[in-house]
């Protein structure tokens, strides 16, 4: 015989009531747990604000169970300590996280990368290298960031060979790293030249140009290396390549280029080269050198007229200084000579105070050419300042 119909809604009401009461009790327990957690978490923050970082770390590790929901809190706290230079506390948090074996592999790899960053920031290169190489041995999923960190590590250690080998793995996915690797090659070539290893240095410079055919530094070092071996034609080829790579740097090697042509007794070819590039893109340095060559060949009047014509269109302190110097060496006498002497002294002070190199990225200025900016730590950003930007 079937149950009376009125029992059916009663049955569903009992189920709903039990579900409601059970859920309310669960929420109550969860609220108590969250209140306890919240109190410990607030205590940790108070320790941090009161400059008690050790207690803050302890409170954090005790109060927050490591999970996908709390992981970012742990990582943010560790990054804060690392930013403040408290690397031991950052490594403590990351080490604690790695002890949680139940975390998924991508999460563990993220924590390992953060731990390696702690060691790098703290100057513990051996430990950072150990962590990163272990990740590569384990065929990690985050291979590219691991290789980047290792490249950065070897750069800081000035282990250029390892930096090149590691960074080379990134070229296909990130072609922008090519010019940086070219500088690594030049650094290694400089070290080889200092040890007298000239043949390996030549290979390294060719490798630099393979990474970046526009690498001015490689051409400069190569030209000077060939001069050292009295290979004048090879040196000329290397120096002339700079004109196509970046004309702003061409004036850096003008004197050396002139020496090469002089050793070959081809001064006329040098004069023609200077005339051609000055016509294409004039600069005070090129014009002054050309005038000096003209003076040696054709006399003072020819050179002075040449500079005067150039100065009318491109006035500069250095050009004025050269004209004054020529007149002082010429026929100027009496009061005129005295005035010219005062002007020469003034132009010498103006040209000697100039900062001639500047970083295009951060604006850092220096009187010496450096291939890496000491301020923003970028490679290849320092260039000679344009003549429109300074009085020279």
Automatic annotation (TrEMBL):
Membrane topology term: Single-pass membrane protein
Residues in the Cytoplasmic compartment per record: 23-392
Residues where Fe cation binds: 359, 362, 373, 376
InterPro entries: CellSynth/LPSAsmb/PSIAsmb, LapB, Rubredoxin_2, TPR-like_helical_dom_sf
Transmembrane segments: 6-23
Main location (coarse class): membrane
The organism's place on the tree of life at top rank: Bacteria
Compartment(s) where it occurs, according to its Swiss-Prot or TrEMBL record: Cell inner membrane
Keyword Cell inner membrane listed: yes
Key words of the record: Cell inner membrane, Cell membrane, Iron, Membrane, Metal-binding, Repeat, TPR repeat, Transmembrane, Transmembrane helix
Domain LapB rubredoxin metal binding positions: 357-384
PANTHER family according to UniProt: LIPOPOLYSACCHARIDE ASSEMBLY PROTEIN B, TPR REPEAT-CONTAINING PROTEIN PA4667
HAMAP family named in the record: LPS_assembly_LapB (MF_00994)
Function: Modulates cellular lipopolysaccharide (LPS) levels by regulating LpxC, which is involved in lipid A biosynthesis. May act by modulating the proteolytic activity of FtsH towards LpxC. May also coordinate assembly of proteins involved in LPS synthesis at the plasma membrane.
NCBIfam families: PRK11788.1-5
Family, per entry: Belongs to the LapB family.
Protein name in UniProt: Lipopolysaccharide assembly protein B
Organism: Alloalcanivorax profundimaris
């Amino acid at each position: 015989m079937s149950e009376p119909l009125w029992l059916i809604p009663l049955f569903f009401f009992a189920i709903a009531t039990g579900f409601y009461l059970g859920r309310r009790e669960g929420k109550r327990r969860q609220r108590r747990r969250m209140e306890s957690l919240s109190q410990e978490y607030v205590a940790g923050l108070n320790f941090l604000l009161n400059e008690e970082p050790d207690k803050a770390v302890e409170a954090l590790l005790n109060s927050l169970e490591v999970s996908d929901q709390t992981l970012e809190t742990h990582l943010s706290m560790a990054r804060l300590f690392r930013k403040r230079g408290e690397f031991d506390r950052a490594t403590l948090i990351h080490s604690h996280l790695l002890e949680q074996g139940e975390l998924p592999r991508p999460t563990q790899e993220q924590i390992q990368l953060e731990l390696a960053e702690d060691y790098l920031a703290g100057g513990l290169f051996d430990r950072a290298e150990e962590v990163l190489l272990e990740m590569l041995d384990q065929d990690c999923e985050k291979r590219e960031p691991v290789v980047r960190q290792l490249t950065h590590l070897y750069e800081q250690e000035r282990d250029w060979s390892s930096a090149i080998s590691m960074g080379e793995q990134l070229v296909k996915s990130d072609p922008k790293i090519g010019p940086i690797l070219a500088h690594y090659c030049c650094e290694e070539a400089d070290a080889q030249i200092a040890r007298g290893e000239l043949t390996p240095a030549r290979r390294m410079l060719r490798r630099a140009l393979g990474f970046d055919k526009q690498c001015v530094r490689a051409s400069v070092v190569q030209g000077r290396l060939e001069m050292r071996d009295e290979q004048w034609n090879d040196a000329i080829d290397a120096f002339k390549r700079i004109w196509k790579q970046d004309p702003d740097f061409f004036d850096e090697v003008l004197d050396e280029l002139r020496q090469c042509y002089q050793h070959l007794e081809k001064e006329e070819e040098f004069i023609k080269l200077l005339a051609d590039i000055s016509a294409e893109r004039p600069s005070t340095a090129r014009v002054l050198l050309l005038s000096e060559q003209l003076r040696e060949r054709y006399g003072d009047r020819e050179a002075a007229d040449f500079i005067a014509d150039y100065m009318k269109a491109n006035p500069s302190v250095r050009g004025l200084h050269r004209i004054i110097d020529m007149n002082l060496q010429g026929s100027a006498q009496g009061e005129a000579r005295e005035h010219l002497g005062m002007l020469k002294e003034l132009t010498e002070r103006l040209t000697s105070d100039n900062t001639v190199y500047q970083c295009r990225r951060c604006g850092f200025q220096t009187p010496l050419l450096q291939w890496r900016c000491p301020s923003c730590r970028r490679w290849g950003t320092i260039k000679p300042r344009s003549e429109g930007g300074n009085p020279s």
